[in-house]
Amino acid sequence: MYISIYLVLTTMFLLGTGAIQPLEKKAPFRYPVNSETPNGKLSYINNIPVLQVKGTPEQMGEAIGKLAVKPAPKATKYPRDVLSHFGVEFMWIVFAKAGQRMANYFPEDYTKELNAMSTSSGISKEDLIVGNTLFDLKKVVACSGITIEPAQSSTGGMLFGRNLDYPSLGYINQYTLVTVYKPENKKAFAAIGFPGLVGCLSGMNQDGLCLAIHEVIDIKTGQKKFNYNGIPYAMCYRQLLEECSTVDEAYELLKKLPRTSTTNLLIADRKRSAVFEVTPDKVIERKSKDGVAVCCNHFCSSEIKPFFPINVRRSFQRFTLLEELRTNENKVSPSQVMEYLDSVNLGDDTLQTMVFEPGTLRLHLAFQNVPSSKGPFHTLDLEPLFQK
Distance between CA atoms of 275 and 214, rounded to whole angstroms? Predict the structure, then answer.
């Protein structure tokens, strides 16, 4: 049944079919300003909405629910809107049942956080569970990413850039939220995401480890494509930020985690970068070349690369264009990374564009307009926010 779900939505996405609804046009959403709970605070810092939470999973979940999820009910309905966008809203009950099955394998702390989030926000667990599992079941994310290692960077430090590409439906980019987590007995980290999302699609931790997920649709025949008993990939990648400081540590941990599906993970610490090509059975490290790592929506490793790979949203062309920075005559600046990310944007589907600087724990983020790669970019210094 789950494979059928995957095939229906993948085919509709690739072929551009389905009852596509017109994009919604409304005034930009803004979170309530300077709201607080004992374990959380939401404020705008340099025009970026930043939610700071700390404590136990229950305390963080309660704060997220009250400060971010409750004021943004539209964002939690986004999964339903995505299904309507592709003309398969009738399949909600199927996704809800599949999500509930996957919820049985959520890490315990994340289950506690989600439950507290639901209680404090009034949003049903079903909606939150689907919002945290739909990524693994449907495959319509098409992203681009690149890293520039210190020797090739004009700043002398690592540069990490990425576009998050997903159907905007005319509104979801406005619900972008930077959540700074300070969990008990784990590393502090920042996740650039949306209210209600427990896992991490893009983020950086207190040690400068940063990562970004890129979905992959196809795999070599005979290789396992989906594991119903795995941890949703965004939750796996959050665990890397909570527990690891380096690319090597993240690689060792990720190999041990039960993984659901096929993804590329662009990852970097302060010294080096790589792409992890991930399946339920394998984690293959594709090392950077000449100080540059490029990541889009197809596998490159011969072990798992299909003989006739699908060119998802011009993935091959985007990859080739970003690789031009490898032969750049001069050292690459953050602004050049932004320019190249703009050159591979996917129009209204480019929701967030960001550049991390792990050495200084700095984030440059654009999200207010689509494509986000056009800017404006706003800068957020994360180091003071990570302080315990």
Answer: 10
Cβ neighbours for 240, distance < 8 A, ≥ 6 positions apart:
209, 211, 250, 253, 254, 267
Scanning the structure block, which residue is given the tokens 């005559």?
A: 329
Band of the pLDDT at 215, cuts 50, 70, 90? very high
Write out the chain in H/E/C secondary structure: CHHHHHHHHHHHHHHCCCCCCCCCCCCCCCCCCCEEECCEEEEEECCEEEEEEEECHHHHHHHHHHHHHCCCHHHHCHHHHHHHHCCCHHHHHHHHHHHHHHHCCCCHHHHHHHHHHHHHHCCCHHHHHHHHHHHHHHCCCCCEEEEECHHHECCCCCEEEEEEECCCCCCHHHHCEEEEEEECCCCCEEEEECCCCCCCCEEEECCCCEEEEEECCCCCCCCCCCCCCCECHHHHHHHHHHHCCCHHHHHHHHHHCCECCCEEEEEECCCCEEEEEECCCCEEEEECECCEEEECCCCCCCCCCCCCCCCHHHHHHHHHHHHHHHHCCCCECHHHHHHHHHHCCCHHHEEEEEEEECCCCEEEEECCCCCHHHCCCEEEECHHHHCC
Give residue 54's identity as a one-letter amino acid code.
K
At 7 the pLDDT is 45
How far is CA 363 from each of CA 4, 11, 120, 204, 205, rounded to the nearest angstrom? 39, 35, 30, 9, 11
Give φ, ψ of 100 to 5 degrees: -65, -40
pTM of the model: 0.94
Query: In whole angstroms, what is the distance from residue 214 CA to residue 280 CA?
Result: 15
pLDDT (tens digit, 9 = 90+) per residue, 188-214?
A: 999 999 999 999 999 999 999 999 999
Residue 10 to residue 262: CA distance in whole angstroms:
13
* Partners of 215 in beta bridges: 263
For the chain, which domains are there? 2-25+58-137 (no CATH), 141-386 (3.60.60.10)
| Residue 104 neighbours by CB under 8 Å, 6+ apart | none
Residue 13 pLDDT exceeds 50:
no
